[in-house]
Amino acid sequence: MSQDVINVIIAQSPALLIAIPLVFAFFCPFIGKISNTVRNIWVAAGMALTSAIALILAWDVYAFGTRIYVFGAQAANLALPMDSGGIPVRIIFTVDPMSALMQIIAAITGLAIILYSISSEQRHSGLSSFYTLYLLMITGIMGMVSTGDLFNFFVFLEILSIASAGLIAYRVDKGLAVEAALKYFVLSTIGALAILFAIGIYYGEYNALNIAMIASRMQFTVLDQVALVLIMAALAMKCGSVPMHFWTPDAYSMAPSSITAMLVVASQASLYGIFRVLFTLYNVTLNTATVGWIIIVLGVLSMVVGVTMAIPQKNVKRLMAYHAISQTGYMLLGVGVGLAVLGNQPLMDSFGYVAMEGGIFHIINHAMYKGLLFLTAGAVFFRIGTYNLNKMGGLGHSMKWTMVFFIIGALAIAGIPPFNGFASKWMIYESVYVFNPILAVIAMVVSILTLASFVKVFHSIFMGPKLPEHADVKEAPLSMLIGMGILAVIVILFGIFPEAVVNTLIAPAAHALTNQGAYISAVLGGA
Amino acid sequence: MFFNIPYIAVVVLALIGLATVLFKRNLIKIFLGIVILESAVNLFLIALGYREGGIAPIYTNAPAGEEMVFSTVQALTLTSIVIGVATTAVMLTFAMVLWKKYGSIETNKIRRLKE
Amino acid sequence: MEIFSSLLSGSGAWNPLAWLLAFVVAAVIAYLIWARGERSYKKGTEQTAPFISGNKEPPKGDLHVRAGNLYWGYTDALKGYYERIVPLHSGDMNDYVLWYLGITALIMVIVVVFS
């Protein structure tokens, strides 16, 4: 490949990131008419290309700073047309290190999950539309995390919601899956309308939809406060924070396992939305202590209620879904502490940045180990056909690799060294302890309860003598193992070299979030 | 005074929509509530772009010196209507499947997933 | 090399490689102790059968403690908490929407009052 082609790919990568999964998605039903194998290769190739583009773009952003991409302009970086009077009128993608980090998460998990689902879904019919919706989910996530335009954010949010709802309901399962999808979809539609209303408020006040433009004009009037709360509550509901989490266990437990792992990433895209609005749109103009404490309280409630609800569960995926809620609490806690001291430079330096880095590091760690755990649950389901923990036992004799991957995931989520969950939780404990010791103690107790509940899951699925009803169970197919293996390797690598990961990926993302001025000047220039 | 009427209508519509979603048990009525809520948001967007005496924002052959209403919000509303049609279609499909499987579309009957 | 340096939090440091090294040393010591152990153990003989006061060993499948029996004491001790928190997950969509809107209203009041 010549140097020119590479340059064009890098220059156009933000557009390709959306275009490639869309094209592959909408051709999928036609390709599916040829044969199943060709379609599998088609979707795997589509996802691999998307991942490659996402990683290239992320590398470019980390190496050379924030990238902007203006759709329909003469040049990709021409944010302000000459005759617009200084207002960015076009749709702009603004990819800073925080967006790039989310793209990396979506790229890695998306690829692992597509490899996994080629085997795990093979027994089911209607797979062409399944993969179409899957690639639309990827489009939605990639769009949400890269866009620099609020209305565009809403559009991608809705693409993601519709595709997710379709996939949750995909295996009707006597209507149970449809019930789960209905609850998810009604709530997320109302949430999306609240977000659209807030966007209307911004437009009415500041005559702009561009995040950087609104941020540079932000006054924090009462209308801005209303808009902030509408967006914050809607996105907190979509990332499943207590007490707006009720849809999460339903949707996570009824979706196919590969989709559940992707829903984790989708929730994190909503989490990214909260952080983007709080830090880039408002930053120090808002009352950081109040809003920070709201986020912290939501986080602590999520941690405690999530883990305590998880322990008595009997359905393994429902149990893991409550743990996903609980882990989201850690991210909210870490970043919430960072927000509460935002604007106070000495406190930021002493623990604020570390707390934020811990919270953001936990996002990528969580996507890896929780995705891995949901995939192992799916592998067990693939072989024995039930999620009921009471009907399992002794599978460690026949599914050794699945068991190893489960152990890795379970130890990582419980925060046992040397896996990645420990590194990010340790950063959260250390920094939050300086801020408020009680919060750190709660976080540690929640971690212990997490370990306790995974001991229960591990015992009931894998330990014990080989049960007669599972006598002929075999190991999961190879492509499922490869999918899980990718995530497991990352869990271990991130655990053993946390410092390298934090320095190269996490710290730039945390600083990009807090540095509102850099974001604005990347779009509007100078200033 | 006149300028506030659309906004009052937005609030009334939004409240009707929210009340329907909260207090009705029939899924079709809940969906209608969501559609009303959506209309409230669309009306809000359109009302934001209105300028008294403004003409339609069509650039070609526009008389010089005339004020135009804002076009951006109209584009947003169009997009939002399209998205609204898609969401309504998805929700109605769910109601259809649930009617077949559960024999009811009352929310107090559709609660097999809990705890 | 930078890749092997420790993670710093401002008040502490964490180096997984040092931890792994300690783990390996502990494993070596454990192996040495194990290697000096009893050598007359033979697999598949009477030696490996469980001793249950002379009773016959029940079938393997009956011995597995299933998930429903685990953590009974824990949930029973926290009964008061669980009796309140579990019924909130009622499975009723109207309740879920009410929670979402209620929390939105609550946060709105807090944010507007405190700023």
Order of helices and strands of chain B: HHH
Low-confidence stretches of chain B: none
Helix content of chain B: 55-70%
Low-confidence stretches of chain A: none
Round the mean pLDDT of chain A to the nearest integer and report it: 92
**H and E order of chain A:** HHEEHHHHHHHHHHHHHHHHH
- The helix-and-strand class of chain A reads mainly alpha
Principal-axes shape call of chain B:
elongated
Query: Could you state the oligomeric state of the chains shown?
Result: heterotrimer
What portion of the residues of chain B fall into strands of 2 or more residues?
Answer: under 5%
Query: What is the number of helices of chain A?
Result: 19
Compute the CA-based radius of gyration of chain B.
19 Å
Structure annotation, total helices of chain B: 3
Portion in strands of chain A: under 5%
Helix content of chain A: over 70%
Q: Could you tell me the radius of gyration of chain A in angstroms?
A: 22 Å
Query: Would you report the number of β strands of chain A?
Result: 2
* Major beta sheet, strand line-up of chain A: 1-2
The total strand number of chain B stands at: 0
Major sheet of chain B = none
Q: Class by helix and strand content of chain B?
A: mainly alpha
Task: Give a verbal description of the structure.
The complex is a heterotrimer of chains A (527), B (115) and C (115). Chain A has helices at 3-34, 36-64, 97-120, 127-146, 150-168, 176-206, 211-217, 222-238, 247-254, 257-282, 288-310, 316-340, 345-384, 400-413, 420-435, 437-462, 478-496, 498-514, 516-524, and strands at residues 67-70, 92-95. Chain A is mainly α. The model of chain A has no long low-confidence stretch (mean pLDDT 92). Chain B contains three helices and no strands. The longest helix of chain B has 31 residues, at 72-102. The radius of gyration of chain B is 19 Å and the shape is elongated. By secondary structure, chain C is mostly helical. Chain C is built from five helices and two strands, in the order E-E-H-H-H-H-H. The mean pLDDT of chain C is 85. Chains in contact: A-B, A-C, B-C. At the A-C interface, helix 6, helix 8, helix 9, helix 11 and helix 13 of A face strand 1, helix 1, helix 2, helix 4 and helix 5 of C.
Short description:
With 527 residues, chain A is mainly alpha-helical.
